[in-house]
Amino acid sequence: MKSNILIIGGNGTVGKTIARIFASRNTQAAIFIGGRKQGKTGNDLIIDVTKPHTFQVIIDKKIDVIILSVNDKEDHVLRFVIENKIDYLDITKPTPDLVKAYDFAKKHTINSRIVFSSGWMGGIVSGLINEFSDSINDIDEAKLFVYYSVKDLAGESSAHFMAENVAKPFFKYQNNKPVSIKHFLDAEPFRFSFGIGTRQAYNFDVPDLYILNQIEKIPNVSVKMTYNSKFITWLLGAFQKIRLYNILSLKERKIIFGSSGNGDQSVFEIVIKTHEGSKKISLQSTKGQAELTALSAVLHVEHLLKNSYENKIYFSHHLYQNSSLFQSLNAYETIHIKITE
Q: Which InterPro entries does the protein's record reference (predicted)?
């Protein structure tokens, strides 16, 4: 497909992976990389999300779609795309920033496709729930369990988010009421698939909590995670119990959460409960979370470019019908999905 795609934050771990996957699947597209420093080619653009005067090059290059893979806390890029009628996909926002951006966008007239895709692994959890449910309105409870390996190749943004927010409360939802909780508390045993086995999983904040309850109206929503190391999982919970995170500096918390390996599997599992029973969706990315997040972003943009969606605000799962998301994910050689009734 002939189109001009701009990846802002394209020099980061996920941004580079988006560029690689998109180029391999869409050979006619022109891919531009936006970053704070001068690159080596004409497709490398100086764009700093904190400096809106650098955005003029977006107009000059006639960009069709912007993929935002760096956190734009002040929503400068979102303001720009709304004003200039450019399609936009954001995969980076933690829950508080997503809520703020969504509220901002709702107050404006939208003349392009604005897609918020900041849920877990590029916003595919809600999509899979929607595809494997007879009706999302019949779901009484959705629980997401995340397996994270410290050996996985991870970008800076996730570590920075944990460092900033680990001591702050966030919300899960019970009977449509927000319940204040904190990371790494309330252990729950969960048997993970793909040979991982039973692990203690702890509270974890991802935007899916907000999206599934506030947007899709599922009354009970929770997210829990475990690390590949049982000792690290226990230790992080112990730190929370003794309130160590409250007295550590941001720099010290970054050291705790800033480790990144060379690559490992990433796994998440969704348990859906209705009045008629339960269903488990299990997904494994053998090349890790950066690959899966990047692929999700690519799939969302491909759908935007191939289909005539009207100009308005979307969450990424709104772009899919029938089993198209599952089929696209399952066709990728490093992704494995299992459904258990």
A: NAD(P)-bd_dom_sf (IPR036291)
Q: pLDDT tens per residue, the chain (341 residues)?
A: 679 999 999 999 899 999 999 999 999 999 999 998 887 888 999 999 999 999 999 999 999 999 999 989 999 999 999 999 999 999 999 999 999 999 999 999 999 999 999 999 999 999 999 998 878 888 999 999 999 988 887 666 677 788 888 999 999 999 999 999 999 999 999 999 999 999 999 999 999 999 999 999 999 999 999 999 999 999 999 999 999 999 999 888 888 887 667 778 999 999 999 988 999 999 999 999 999 999 999 999 999 999 889 999 999 999 998 789 999 999 999 999 999 98
- 293: Cα separation from own chain's centroid: 7
Residues with Cβ within 8 Å of residue 181, at least 6 apart in sequence: 169, 170, 171, 172, 203
Residue among 62, 61, 126, 115 at smallest CA distance from 92: 115
Q: Please, what CATH class does the domain formed by 122-288 belong to?
A: alpha beta
Q: How far apart are CA 62 and CA 9, in angstroms?
A: 18
List, in sequence order, the alpha helices (H) in the chain. Answer: 13-25, 56-60, 76-84, 95-106, 120-123, 125-131, 156-165, 208-210, 230-241, 244-247, 250-257, 289-306, 324-330
CATH architecture of 4-119+290-321: 3-Layer(aba) Sandwich (3.40)
**Amino acid identity at 26:** N
Return the C-alpha torsion angle 178, 180, 182, 185, nearest 10. -90
Fold agreement between 4-119+290-321 and 122-288? no
Q: Where are the domains of the chain?
A: 4-119+290-321, 122-288
Instruction: Answer yes or no: pTM beyond 0.85.
Output: yes
Using CA atoms, how far apart are residues 219 and 174, in angstroms rounded to an integer?
6
Rounded to 5 degrees, what are φ and ψ at 125? Answer: -60, -50
Pairing, β 277-285 against β 335-340: antiparallel
